[in-house]
Amino acid sequence: MLRRSGLSLGQYFLRRKNRAGFSWYFNKTKMSRLVQARRLEGMDKNVWVEFVKLAATYPTVNLGQGFPDFPPPDFVKEAFMKAVGGENIMLHQYTRAFGHPVLVTILARFFGKLLGQELDPLTNVLVTVGAYEALFCCFQALVDEGDEVIIIEPFFDCYEPMVKMAGGTPVFVQLRPKAAEAGKLMSSGDWQLDPAELASRFTERTKAIVLNSPNNPLGKVFTRGEMELIADLCVKHDVLCFSDEVYEWIVYDGKEHIRIASLPGMWDRTITIGSAGKTFSATGWKIGWSLGPDRLLKHLRTVHQNSVYHCPTAAQEAVAQAFQREFDNYGKPDSYFVQLAQELQQKRDWLVRSLVAGGMKPIVPEGTYFLMADFSEFKSEVPDLPDSDEPYDSRFIKWMIINKGLVSIPVSAFYSTPHKRNFDHFIRFCFAKEESTLKAAEDILQQWSLEKTGQ
Ligand code: PMP
Ligand code: GLN
């Protein structure tokens, strides 16, 4: 870059210095008032930005951010290649703003069946840039200043800032761990809501509750009983439910994924959110959707049309073809959804074994491709700094990245500020990884354990 611009090192630094001088001048003259909107205050930090960068900076085995390091299935890749390279040149142009017609049609057919509800592709389905945009539209469209939104901890981190950006107030309720059965590892199912505590969070200001089953980062799959408890409270207090179901196909040990919108009284008050990234192991495609009654979705469409407006056409076409294939194979051994869960269950078990052998205490997840592990036994490695602003798990992982070459995500990132410290002895691992990656992680843990025990 220096050579291209023909500058000597001295000239380069001189220019930078001069530029710095100008910016100082402008800062001084123009920046006396607050630059950023007030609603952004306290939201500049982001765990993904920070840890994705660290994972890229050091040579590591990356079990951090949630994405498969194996390819999507062939039929999915082929559908994309056909969309981009095929005869229909219109797939390179804009399509319908609220969802490409073939995609909304198949989503309506597919999920209509699962929800026991006739879905109109034009009014009950909205295609978004990943589940992220679907969530953002929910909060922007349906949460107002002064509204309260109930969030179940631990929670996918973006719910809290999104509620706040909409002017709402997050109200937290925790999944509480009970002791595991004797001689067994703890399961994500051992983490439960206290019904009385949950009920106490519903007030006349409650506008919505966010439900995420299977849950990221814990991997909990809410039971029908737990769903019914939440549904009854929503109906009783006339509260909306934003149901983030991006891991709907990734459920283990014969557990059942329940869709809360299918419970009595819930269709009319629920937005169900999904992600092609999670569904077809293609997180970079960023195609998501919301399903719900028109009375709610029409407001999400208003946010969408005035912000993102439109999602990539070719990717939507490919996701539509992939769903059509899954529709035809539903529940059959050939179904990718069936195969994905089977393969991931083996990977889960592998990582659980590696962590136990290495001295950590994993919580066995019932769903998702994440697990939380208690690393208390490793605390002697990194000194505690009780006065530090940074939670212990975050500092521990930074140490682990640099010294052991292993990446994970601090669980404190999935808790509200007052509760972070209580859970900073957990870290989250992603196991949607090739065998070679899981083996490399196993080797690191094994070597580490040998060093710790002085063997
Ligand atoms: N919800 C949860 C629970 C997630 O883990 C993620 C991460 N992908 C999202 C929503 C966002 O999904 P997408 O990549 O489709 O935007
Ligand atoms: N959902 C993924 C995870 O939990 C990715 C999140 C992100 O990159 N923002 O790891």
UniProtKB/TrEMBL annotation:
It is found in: Cytoplasm, Cytosol. The keyword ATP-binding does not apply. Residues 60-439 form the Aminotransferase class I/classII large domain. This is Kynurenine--oxoglutarate transaminase 1. It comes from the Eukaryota. Homodimer. Signal peptide: none annotated. Its EC number is 2.6.1.64, 2.6.1.7, 4.4.1.13. It holds the Pfam family Aminotran_1_2. PANTHER family: FI04487P, KYNURENINE--OXOGLUTARATE TRANSAMINASE 1. GO terms for cellular component: cytosol; mitochondrion. GO terms for biological process: kynurenine metabolic process; response to bacterium. It catalyses: an S-substituted L-cysteine + H2O = a thiol + pyruvate + NH4(+); L-kynurenine + 2-oxoglutarate = kynurenate + L-glutamate + H2O; 3-phenylpyruvate + L-glutamine = 2-oxoglutaramate + L-phenylalanine.
